């Protein structure tokens, strides 16, 4: 079997890459150890959002958000795409300054964003607590259900000739192809490591670390939350890269459910030392009660009425984090082994931009945006927030 | 205590007998609204409502609206299926079959259909439960839990028993639900009597949902939560009914078999109703007898197991005099009710509510008009809590050693959760667990022989009532398998595993957490069930922060 490109991992990133390469006429193989969209893609929130921690982050998220919007009509129902917008919530005057700075930044770059005062915020989101300072609405941001999005991309790629191998872990990845655990070698002109937080297992010496997150989902309460709500304190907490942090983050699902986040932990320790019986959750993926409590307390602080809502489930997932908070898109140190990983908490959003930039590089097309900032060979230092 | 309680259902006053659940009130209100002499004080409300029910009962029994807009009503009767959800005092998604009716309650049906406006007072802080201090915590106040509590308390242990049923129904578990005041069998009388002579603390209407740390469990109560510390734990979480999807099984009026019994025990009106009892297991007979006693017209008991297997079961019964006595007494109570082995429902139909069911028997089908189809296909152990705590669970049952000890040394398990075996096995396992947890292994050993005998019987039981393959062919493409999320059989056929089905179709993602559809897909497709995460039952967000 010979392909133009072998993509390892059918998360949202691998799936989007497969779709993009197949669309460009390449012969594509996708190899997935588990099931489509079953990794971080099954755990993430699916918020499609433009961020501005750096120019490079803005460029990639902005491109990606536009690509999602252009795709909206083609997405299947079960991808649950809604353009609900993001509401950045400011608790005090200092955060209001940030709202205005952010708005100016977005506006200058052509992204609509609207400043809301306290009263307008209360009208837009009546279940937020009293006494907040205001907010910034970014109306073109959206929400999706990622596992079905990934399946959609894979199916579309298949309809254009891609081959998909499910349930086959890759044990060795070179620029000439991928070896499966049963010894089969699938040859290709180039390979893409899109295995998310597992990427260092196939391509050692890349700077990707697991960053654990917790989420909570409620029963259906239509219209209780209307935008994806994120506290601006997020910027203070989420950016401290070495310590555990929580932030208020509440998302309206198309189902009427509310998805509540978020937490960030490096190398989380196991605080619930229960025996790992067959069929139980692996130790590192278990809920960490203290951080879950902190996260929920934060959510209730911003939205007191959340307290009474019925929670159906909690779970955790791993983000693939890089030191400078930008993904790795491009050739690795190994000839013809490309990387598409390191998307941290934005991989659902940036999957589409990633696929576009990777194909631009491989096919030597004029790039949609400059791809230099995301090249794996870039010098990386810890990003500190302004 | 007043004899009746008045509450508001969709803005109308409804009176119910004290001790009723909210579900009963909703059922009565809907019968009422068709043609109502408004029930006035002094009238026997249930009787008045019922008199009108037969002639005029055309309103669908709507409790909630499903994701695709179907009208739904209770299925399981025990707080598992979430079909009975209504909004109570602004609190959406409340399980009406588990919440006692209280004066002045404001109940709104159709929850899930419209926006919900939570009232502000719904967000006031709660009165928290005091933390009981006990050496031994027992979860489940059914026969196994009661027997364990008695033997442990007799051995000097400080025992707390927690159960999610309201105090009006508990202790008793499923079989002895609401039986304490007037026990329905000599066995029940004996154990409730014995319970009086020991000092055991009961916590009712509290459902365990999480284990924040080893040695500590969290339970949700009506208006708060309580934290339970323990040195030793006995899980006696019992069983639930298994449901097999067939066309029409989501219609109001199709309930579990034990489900309708549980509903009737809390006052749900069954008198004068035409009922088909169907599915599998000895439970069908018990349910039919109970419904008949409550004035229902039981048209038929349909047992899917074949005559030949039942005959073998009969032979085993003969070895157990006490079970023969039960069987004979049931037979007497059910005089005149046809009992058809090798018969099962293939579809149910009706306009917004059950009107008739099609039964198959010996290759032929026939249609039976009825008001209820009480239908459960044997039982399934409740193993979720054991899984949460970290006990080994294999092939759907909790693994235990000869002392009913699980893979965790301080956690024991007894009753149906270790495998379906019926009342006597639950009682003897409960006793062994209680004694072993109290360190009295020698006493426990004396009961091993009895347990061996009961386990042998259980094996016969499980073989006899094993589900036939034909039942796998009942669903059609459009039949909904996941009732919480309205996922059709056809969509599931395209999936290859439970996890894939969850991720791609939302099957199993609803409030029952897959307890209903997971059992069905396990039967239909042979998919196992997935890992267990807290909360093991839906719980209010504030309670997760304890
Ligand atoms: C709590 C949380 C919240 C988040 N919220 C958001 C959000 O709101 N918005 C957003 O844009 N992003 C969000 N993210 C981030 C987003 O989920 C991820 O960035 C994204 O899913 C990454 O996709 P991926 O395809 O790179 O990785 P994955 O989805 O993890 O896919 C990798 C795949 O590779 C497979 N694989 C691994 N090793 C092998 C091997 N050896 N052989 C074959 N296959 C292999 C795995 O089985 C897996 O399917 C969130 C993440 C978390 C954890
Ligand atoms: C719906 C139903 C009806 C039945 N009716 C009959 C009958 O009429 N005749 C007959 O012979 N057999 C009947 N059975 C079988 C009968 O249940 C068993 O034979 C016997 O009662 C088992 O006893 P147990 O103590 O193991 O469990 P159960 O009696 O089921 O008791 C378990 C208790 O634990 C509680 N519980 C479970 N999880 C939690 C939690 N997380 N937090 C708090 N509490 C919890 C449950 O609500 C329940 O009250 C019925 C079974 C079911 C499911
Ligand atoms: S039936 Fe409840 S989740 Fe499927």
What structural category arises from helix and sheet content of chain A?
Answer: alpha/beta
Largest sheet geometry of chain A: 8 strands, mixed
Largest interface: A-B, 52 and 54 residues
Structural class of chain B: alpha/beta
Main sheet: strand order of chain B: 2-1-7-5-6
- What ranges of chain A have pLDDT less than 50 throughout 5 or more consecutive residues? 269-278
Average pLDDT of chain A, rounded to a whole number, is: 92
Total tally of structural domains of chain B: 4
Distance between the termini of chain A: 50 Å
What is the global morphology of chain A? globular
Provide the β-strand percentage band of chain B. 15-25%
Number of strands of chain A: 18
Describe the structure.
The complex is a heterodimer of chains A (386) and B (546). In chain A, 28% of the residues lie in helices and 28% in strands. In chain A, helix 1 packs parallel to helix 6 and helix 3 packs across helix 10. The longest helix of chain A is centred in the first third of the chain and has 17 residues. About 3% of the residues of chain A have low confidence. A 5-stranded mixed sheet of chain B has the order 2-1-7-5-6, covered by helices on one side. Chain B has a 5-stranded parallel sheet with strand order 10-9-8-14-27, covered by helices on one side. In chain B, strands 16-23-17-18-19 form a 5-stranded parallel sheet, with helices on one face. The complex binds flavin-adenine dinucleotide (FAD) (2 copies) and FE2/S2 (inorganic) cluster. One flavin-adenine dinucleotide binds next to helix 1, strand 2, helix 2, strand 12 and strand 16 of chain A.
Can you summarize this structure?
The complex is a heterodimer of chains A (about 375) and B (about 550). Chain A is of the alpha/beta class. Chain A has ten helices and 18 strands.
């Amino acid at each position: 079997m010979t392909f133009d490109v072998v993509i390892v991992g059918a998360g949202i990133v691998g799936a989007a890459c497969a779709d993009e390469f197949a669309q460009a006429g390449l012969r594509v193989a996708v190899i997935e150890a588990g099931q489509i969209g079953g990794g971080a893609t099954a755990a993430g929130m699916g918020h499609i959002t433009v961020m501005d921690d750096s120019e490079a982050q803005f460029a990639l998220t902005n491109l990606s958000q536009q690509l999602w919007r252009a795709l909206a009509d083609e997405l299947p129902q079960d991808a649950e795409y809604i353009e609900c917008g993001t509401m950045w919530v400011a608790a005090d005057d200092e955060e209001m300054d940030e709202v205005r700075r952010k708005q100016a930044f977005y506006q200058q770059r052509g992204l609509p964003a609207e400043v809301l005062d306290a009263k307008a915020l209360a009208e837009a989101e009546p279940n937020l607590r009293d006494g907040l300072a205001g907010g910034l609405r970014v109306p073109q941001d959206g929400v999706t259900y990622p596992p079905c999005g990934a399946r959609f991309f894979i199916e579309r790629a298949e309809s254009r000739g891609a081959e998909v191998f499910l349930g086959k872990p890759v044990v060795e990845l070179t620029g000439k192809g991928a070896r499966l655990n049963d010894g089969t070698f699938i040859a290709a002109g180039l390979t893409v490591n899109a295995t998310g937080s597992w990427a260092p297992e196939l391509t050692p010496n890349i700077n990707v670390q697991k960053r654990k997150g917790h989420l909570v989902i409620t029963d259906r309460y239509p219209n209780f939350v209307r935008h994806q709500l994120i506290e601006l304190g997020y910027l203070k907490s989420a950016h401290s890269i070495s310590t555990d942090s929580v932030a208020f983050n509440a998302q309206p699902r198309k189902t009427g459910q509310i998805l509540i986040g978020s937490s960030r932990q490096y190398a989380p320790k196991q605080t619930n030392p229960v025996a790992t019986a067959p069929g139980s959750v692996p130790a590192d993926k278990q809920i960490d009660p203290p951080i879950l409590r902190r996260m929920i307390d934060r959510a209730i602080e911003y939205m007191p009425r959340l307290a009474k809502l019925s929670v159906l489930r909690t779970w955790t997932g791993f983000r693939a984090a890089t030191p400078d908070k930008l993904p790795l898109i491009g050739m690795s140190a190994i000839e013809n082994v490309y990387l598409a990983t390191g998307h941290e908490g934005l991989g659902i959003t940036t999957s589409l931009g990633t696929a576009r930039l990777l194909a631009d590089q491989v096919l030597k097309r004029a790039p949609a945006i400059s791809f230099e900032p995301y090249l794996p060979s870039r010098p990386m230092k810890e990003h500190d927030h302004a | 205590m007043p004899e009746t309680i008045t509450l508001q259902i969709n803005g109308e006053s409804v009176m119910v007998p004290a001790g009723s659940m909210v579900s009963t009130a909703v059922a009565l209100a809907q019968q009422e609204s068709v043609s109502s002499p408004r029930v006035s004080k002094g009238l026997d409300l249930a009787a008045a409502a019922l008199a009108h029910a037969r002639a005029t009962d055309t309103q669908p029994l709507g409790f909630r609206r499903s994701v695709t807009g179907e009208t739904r009503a209770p299925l399981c009767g025990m707080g598992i299926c979430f079909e009975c959800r209504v909004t109570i005092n602004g609190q959406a998604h409340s399980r009406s079959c588990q919440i006692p009716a209280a004066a002045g309650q404001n109940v709104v049906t159709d929850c899930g259909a419209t926006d919900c406006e939570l009232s502000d007072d719904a967000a006031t802080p709660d009165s928290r439960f005091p933390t009981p201090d006990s050496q031994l915590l027992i979860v489940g106040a059914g026969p196994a839990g009661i027997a364990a509590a008695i033997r442990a308390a007799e051995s000097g242990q400080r025992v707390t028993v927690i159960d999610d049923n309201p105090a009006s129904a508990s202790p008793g578990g499923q079989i002895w639900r609401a039986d304490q005041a007037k026990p329905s069998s000599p066995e029940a009388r004996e154990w409730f009597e014995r319970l009086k002579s020991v000092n055991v603390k009961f916590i009712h209407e509290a459902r365990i949902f999480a284990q924040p740390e080893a040695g500590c469990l969290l339970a949700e109560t009506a208006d708060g939560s309580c934290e339970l510390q323990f040195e030793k734990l006995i899980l006696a979480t019992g069983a639930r009914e298994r449901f097999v999807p067939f066309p029409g099984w989501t219609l109001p009026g199709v309930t579990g078999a034990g489900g309708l019994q549980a509903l009737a025990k809390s006052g749900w009106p069954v008198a004068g109703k035409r009922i088909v009892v169907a599915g599998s297991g000895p439970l069908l007979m018990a349910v039919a007898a109970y419904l008949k006693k409550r004035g229902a017209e039981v048209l038929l008991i349909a047992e899917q197991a074949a005559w030949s297997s039942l005959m073998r079961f009969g032979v085993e019964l003969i070895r157990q005099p006490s079970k023969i006595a039960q069987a004979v007494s049931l037979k007497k109570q059910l005089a005149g009710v046809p009992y058809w082995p090798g018969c099962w429902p293939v579809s149910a139909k009706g306009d917004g509510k059950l009107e008739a069911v099609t039964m198959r028997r010996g290759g032929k089908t026939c249609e039976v008009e009825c008001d209820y189809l009480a239908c459960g296909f044997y039982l399934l152990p409740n193993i979720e809590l054991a899984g949460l705590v970290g006990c080994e669970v294999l092939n759907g049952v909790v693994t235990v050693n000869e002392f009913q000890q699980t893979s965790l040394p301080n956690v024991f398990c007894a009753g149906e959760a270790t495998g379906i075996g019926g009342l006597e096995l639950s009682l003897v396992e409960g006793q062994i667990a209680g004694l072993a947890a109290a360190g009295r292994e020698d006493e426990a050993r004396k009961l091993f022989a009895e347990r061996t005998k009961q386990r042998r019987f259980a094996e016969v039981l499980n073989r006899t009532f094993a589900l036939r393959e034909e039942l796998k062919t009942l669903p059609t493409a459009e039949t909904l398998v996941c009732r919480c999320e309205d996922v059709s059989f056809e969509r599931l056929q395209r999936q290859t595993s439970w996890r894939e089905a969850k991720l791609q179709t939302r099957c199993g993602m609803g409030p029952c957490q897959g307890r209903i559809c997971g059992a069905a897909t396990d039967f239909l497709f042979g998919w196992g069930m997935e890992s267990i995460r807290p909360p093991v039952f839906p719980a209010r967000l504030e309670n997760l922060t304890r």
